[in-house]
Amino acid sequence: MQEDRIQSLETERRHLLSKQSDLTSRLVDLEEENRGLKKKLYVFENELSEERNALQSIRRVQEQTDQALLSFRKTHDSLECQIRDLKDDNARLQVERDNLACQLQSLRDDNHRMRTGLVQLDQQKDSILMALDSKIDLISRLERDVSSKDSKIELLEDRIAKLKSA
After folding, report:
1. What is the pTM of this model?
2. With contact defined as beta carbons under 8 Å apart, do 30 and 97 qualify?
3. How far is residue 127's CA from residue 133's CA, in Å, rounded to a whole number?
């Protein structure tokens, strides 16, 4: 019964360690993705800055003003949209990272609790094994005592039988 419980806890512990490893790996992947998104955001912000500078140059060139302004606005809107999307993605990744960090801490707490439980079960098992050894020793002594007394009874029965026949 105790061994089944120990095996069950060991299996659950291995499962939790595997899950913890998977979550840690996922967290590393998400952090790498987050860094990539930040780099893209930086690139897009630089592009946006360059476009704003280009707009000032375009305004100086009167004959191309209307066409260049329309082109810039389209590019600008696209970049702003991409920036918003990247910021949204970044915020989502931050929330996911925080959730994973909470899950990781929870798994660590569970792992600690399981280890504590295993230590207690090992102590109980050791105590039971000591008690079992003591009982086995007692049974062995009692069996020897019974065997000795059975031999004495047989001798006495033989004497009684001889005395009756004599």
Report:
1. 0.39
2. yes
3. 10
